[in-house]
Queue: 4 jobs
Job 1
Amino acid sequence: MQQDEFSDHFGILDAVELAVIVLKVGDDGQPRYVAMNTKAREATEFEHSDYAGKTALELYGGTIGRRALNHHLGVISSGKEATYDIVLPTEHKAKYLSTTLRPVFDSGGRLAYLVGSSADITSERERDEALELTRMALDKAEEASQAKERFLANMSHEIRTPMNGIIGMCELLKETDLDEQQQVFADTIFNSATALLTVINDVLDFSRIQADKIALHDAPFSLRDVVQDVGTLLWARAAYKGIDLRIDYPEDVPHEFVGDASKIRQILMNLLGNAIKFTEAGHVTIRAAYDPGAAKLPLRIQVADSGIGIEPSQMDWIFSAFEQVDRKTARVIEGTGLGLAITRALAERMGGTVTAASVPGEGSVFTVGLNLPQPGEAGPGGGDTPEVLGSRQAVSTAPGLPGPELPPEALKGMRILVAEDNRTNQLLVRKMLKSTGADLRFAGTGQIAVELFESEGADLILMDLSMPVLGGLDATRRIRTHEREAGLPECPIVALTANAQPSDVEACLAAGMNDFLSKPFRKNELLARILRQGKQA
Ligand code: ADP
């Protein structure tokens, strides 16, 4: 194609949808603009008189000009087409073009023209940039939420460790000979500490619910036992106020279901706890009902009271977080205002509901509706992860909790290795197990625990998680390796720890532990764990 013939056709380029530029390669080897179609003129905002006869460097100047010229020279020297993106700094905002630049040879085989066609990719670029910004914001939010999780886990650990000392020692103190006044002081410390623990557990539970971190551990369980347990745990609190606590579990209601018993216990503890808290006289009743005909939620558990009731105007928001009914004349009522928010979130997590009805001055009824399969109807779900004691349900401010009463010397001769670095907690375990006749050995680090186990063995190990030198998880792994290598049976290991997150339970089990008890623990709970694991071994 002759050069002149070619330039005669520039006008045709206006029919093209893309932005097209044409550069003529001079005798000096420099490419200079000779044509831009309408689209290209719109994109660059240049007129023919602006660009004609100029190189890209002369036209744009600076970095943009140098870059464009390099692209042009690259195609000239290689003789091959190239595709690249360019940014045009137009008056309003940057324009992004994806350009393909082709060499055009004359009939003599000389590279005479460069023809570039560009598509405007500004909106794609903007979308990519917006996506990138969103991704960065999401990463940041995720980071912040992980930081919050870490903070909560740490705070929980730091508070539970001393709380274990306070509650445990107080429990032991109450078992000693105290005069009436001392008994009142000890009860007050005990009740205040357990109340404080409830607040801490509420806040942790609530933040886990907000972060959608509530995992369900489904297994077959007896609902009747759970209802009865809750009644037993709160019985003393009701009796103290002179309220009649009734449990109504009719014969025709099935006992066995598959579900997360600890979460159901937590729901019922919250509702029954509230019923007792807001009732001054009369009764509180916990009642189960089962209607196989109700397709949606056949299982109903009602907690009814004859207490102060709730005004209709307040009904809507008692389930909101941090809200308490404003009773102008009443004294400030203890509680975080989180209980019902947690209760409803837990029920909803299980596919259920919690509703309330009330007549002010006469009482309230809270109804939990659930649809739990019965064993055999559906395979058990999440396995038998031991529940994390430490939530509201594990704490009762009722003095004189009934529990397994062990005959003295019940663990006589049982060699228990206690890996625990905190001196107060060592003392606590020593005192709690004193009357059982167990033979206790203490290790202040995981390393010492491993060495003691390897040299002397043990019948059961109580293992703290965070200890200096070697933590409880690593110590457990080493003990399990040692047992395998020496052909020994597995010694039961129970984690005794202030880390109360569900992920901690999983970490303990994964490391080879058998059970988990979260601090602060009660004497009865400690004994129950030892008996259970001792029996299984
Ligand atoms: P809190 O931890 O403060 O008890 P909840 O979320 O459990 O918070 O309850 C929120 C509010 O709902 C309570 O402060 C109380 O005013 C009201 N409430 C809950 N249960 C009852 C009840 N059984 N009788 C009367 N009022 C109740």
Job 2
Amino acid sequence: MTELDRLASDFGNAETAIALTGAGISAPSGIPTFRGDDGVWKRFDEGQFTYGRFRSDPAGFWADRLELHREMFGGEFEPNAAHDALAALARDGHLDAILTQNTDGLHRDAAFVGDDSPADGITDAADATILELHGNARRVRCTDCGNRTEAEPIFDRAADGERPPTCDCGGVYKPDVVLFGEQLPGAVIQRARSLARESDVFLAIGSSLAVEPAASLPRLAASSGATVGIVNLESTPCDGVADVVCREDVTEVLPRLRDLAASG
Ligand code: NAD
């Protein structure tokens, strides 16, 4: 029996199975990661995208954010075999929640959940709960009245020179994502922690596990007795607490895992 066979059988037997995903699951869809050799921080200055900069220099922030947004999300992209495998595991009843650090909305697409994500980032969909820990880049939010709206037309207005773009109420729009230096919504982080504590199987996929809360969720799951798996091309700071580490491409491992769990 391989380690993946064992992990698949744990998924089959789990009362609560959770996946935590990071930028690496969307890299095969053509969306660059932040870190690593091809990561956007090789071409952009991470320090320009903080909440502090948004507050003190919204026009400059929007000029830079527009470039970053077009670089990351400018092309056509769709869910890949790894997103589809997680959606299939959920449909099969083997996966209860997907906690994602990604803001690209691809788990929602794979699960056909639609794009009208709720304000708190928590969607209790029929097959699985989807938690968008860092928000959703397909929306912007007015910092005064809280109105949320589709991001692309607002980015187009910023490209046409309206920087910062503003809401009908006069408030400044902010991408509906958690910026560096900004707090995660309390409800989403509490739910993520309780799911990690409840889980019998916790699989971290395509994340460097370098940023909180992702960095501590696998440890929380391990200390609560879960079987912890990690699928990532590079080593992570959580490898030591994992029962299974697959240093392989997500699009290779996840479909295999789903097939094994389905046939087990
Ligand atoms: P990260 O960039 O820190 O790490 C990504 C990890 O994925 C790396 O360790 C890399 O080795 C691995 N990886 C890349 N391609 C892979 C593949 N095909 N198979 C397996 N592993 C692969 O990203 P992170 O851990 O998600 O954390 C940083 C932040 O990046 C998060 O806050 C997230 O919001 C943001 N982000 C999101 C997106 C997105 O929405 N798609 C893209 C870039 C960054």
Job 3
Amino acid sequence: MSVERRQPTGLVWHELFMWHDTSALAGFVKSGRGVIEPDEAAEKPATKRRMKNLLDVAGLSEYLIPIKVRAATDAELTLVHAPAYVETIKSMSARDGGDASLGAVGGDTPFGPGGFDIAAMAAGGIFEAVDAILEGRVDNAYALVRPPGHHAERGHGFGFCIFNNCALAARYIQHRHGLDRVAIVDWDVHHGNGAEHIFWDDPTVLTISIHQDGLYPPGSGAMSARGGGGGAGYNINVPLPPGSGAGAYLAVIERIVVPALRHFAPHFIVVACGFDAGAYDPMARMMLHPDAFRAMTRQILHAAGALCGGRVLFAHEGGYHTLTVPFHGLAVIEELSGRNGSVADAFTPIIAAMPYQDLQPHQDAIIQKLQSAIAESLGNKPHRTKT
Ligand code: ZN
């Protein structure tokens, strides 16, 4: 079941997002340590700018409602982040920039002068998208923002992420709009550690992360990490083996994500939308193609239509292959806006023809194991839709 389409899809975009400066990195490590020759950072403007350009060239942008961007206030940022952390980023930003990871090993997150303002604009743009959805000005929205957010912790940045955009969206939905339950579905190929920790003992935010097993952050994202205290059961990790394709991902959405959403009955769904599970991504080893992202989006839209009036916000996270990320993004936004087929898809025919796209037995076994674990842990919890 899906809701009848009444309004267009919103798009959060601002050129300043592309000016977020990660140039202190070579790939994903800092250069200049004597052995790493300087190179382009993995998290760079090109993938996102090319995605926006493709939306324009495909003629899709003219059907999207531009969401006006504003800076998130300090009070809003501290809905999730420690006040001291917000102040630290602000003062680094006022000087020469710095590293938002504050020394967390393996999480280099450099930013240039003014980086605080850009990160605050990304969060503020997302808040504006939430407002537009909940005020009925748009049906749903895509936030094409930088920096990404899903690795950011309460007290420090991590893995290219300064402020946790999706976690902030969840708290903003609760505090500004008074909605009780928000679900975050994270299909970036890396584990959504930030939301897991921020909402660990919180039963009002369901966090689901689908990621390549053991990829990043190291040691993070185990199936057994299910939340604690009052939030026990409301964190779900789906660690998939490298080489997972469309069959595995669609099975996860159908057999794990949608049933968990149905049980939780969210008032709003936020999707942490990374495209680094794409087949050519340099930072991971999965096999998705644009049509897979399209089908996953369709499944989420159907669930949102049935459960929360179609209220869903997609926020851009990772995705590092400049040629294919724009097509993954186009497929998602075509599906969100109900305007499929704007341009020929250059990559699905190539990637879908690769062997092992179908659900493989070893992937199925992991999904089955997780289904059993979830059924057991949620068996004694009330079904939200019945209360
Ligand atoms: Zn990622």
Job 4
Amino acid sequence: MCGIFGCVLKSGSAAPIIHSALKRLEYRGYDSVGEATVNMGKLFIKKDAGKIDEVHSLLNLDDLPGEIGIGHTRWATHGAPSRVNSHPHFSCSEPPKIAVVHNGIVENFMELKKELDDAGHVFRSKTDTEVIAHLIEENIGEKELALKTPSSSPFEKAIFNAINRLQGSFAVAVVSSYEPNKVFCARNESPLVLGVAENAFYFASDIPAFLPLTNKAVYVENGEMAILSKNAFEIKKIFDGSSVTRDLKQIDWAPEMAEKQGYPHFMIKEIYEQPRCLRDTLRLQDKYLELLTTFLDRAREVIMVACGTSYHACLAASYMFSKLSFLATHPVIASEFTGQHGKSVNIDSTILAVSQSGETADTLAAVETARQRAATILGLTNVVGSTLTRVSRVYLSQQSGPEIGVAATKTFTSQLSALSQLALRLAKKRGKISQEDIDILDEKVRRIPDIVEKIIETQKEKVKKLATKYRDKSCFFFLARGISYATALEGRLKLMEIAYMPAIAFPAGESKHGPISLIEKGFPVVFVCPPDQTRKTVIGNIMEMKARGALIVAICEENDEEIIRIADDYIEIPKGIPEILSPIPYVVPLQLFAYYMAIERGCDPDMPRNLAKSVTVK
Ligand code: F6R
């Protein structure tokens, strides 16, 4: 996730406006920043790695001439944060004639890059974005696609030709000395919205970027290109160039709501973002998935190290690797790793470190112990350029964009999506399950984002009511078996850290070896019970709890009559989810429950006491 912004002013200087808009988009990414303006037919570009304030203090981002320009705040996905990988990217010509900013992932960039390499283009960066600039350049003077409304200039034709070749998700914007009075921006899947003011037109990834400047917005839809000039803007379909008319929308958000896109808290915004993040996680780079799979396949022993939510993702992943690819992996809480495995880990060990921030001190300390004993380090993180990416032999980016809420939500589901894809790939490599089963599971992984979206839409109100009902309880139990034990642990962690509700989680089978002594009339017990092979036994555990007066809240498959009949309350999850993927949808109601419990109990979900987003001390 990155932030893009641009403007065409009737008069004045674009650069300071772009700079302050990027500050308002910084929550979308903050590892690099850049701007390009056009003045007197020439392009001016400033960019570098670092937070906006750091780069501004070195380069003075306000000091670029011109009334037209584009800007970008980056969250690296392809290529580590560096000056050369920062946006805007430009084509071969010197001085640059085409500058491009982009949010999203160009899935076919390797193929396009090869084609452009062969045509003699010279690439400077490791990004997918740079292909767009070269592709436009390559298309200048080429035959136009059969557009319904013929484009007005060779440069516009070149943009249409180029954008029509892109696959994946993008919101892309272009300025050029070929067409110095216009900004072109186009969208497929990544967000793009126009701001309309008396003296200017803007485009941005999100409304907050231009909200202090105008509250009149026009949404650009998937497959559309907007062309902004001083006196007008037009929207055309990318596919055939036909014109689109779209009404202005009045935006009534207060500025403090705007950053959260109208949501009251970052936590709920990020819960709602999960379908989109999961779609992005489906676009993981094949090359790195394959490399990681090869390392895992050859490993003598695999130890997964992580903390908190990331540890819960590892625990779920250990079931995935075992069931799908017959690989035994050991999830270890990072702070325990050195004590538990410090002496036994060696050159034959492979460590898969999982960390959203890539900076968690305990995880990095575990990695350091393993590195010193010559183990192979693999990483899964959200922050390309973090310490974890630098110390890993190979790493995978979980692709969920900055997570601002202290409680990890989209991190858990995106990590699980990435890990399940690894497990599936390994299963295929090892020939452990049939191609037919792999195809079915692949298809199911692709359906997960829609399922998560449906759960949020259909179950949100019900979960809210549950929070009202249970807000005054003094303790909660979370029980589950198999892979759902990880889901139970994660649901319990969210409730504790956000709503300050004491809670314990156990594998349901362990409950009668001690914890059951807590149960008395009215004690709430949450069971995570998808319809896998543990279901029958879990029903037995529910009955044990009921017999002692517990109140049962079940997270079960829709229309699971047997469970619905015995539960006091239940949340239904759509049918047809394979066991190994079940933690992704089944955790969503538990995230919502923690959030609404926090609200009911007067806690601020975005600022839980004593906690920090990234724990950089041991
Ligand atoms: C819980 C939470 C923490 C983190 C943990 C690890 O909601 O956010 O438990 O999961 O501090 O952080 P990363 O994944 O950045 O290593």
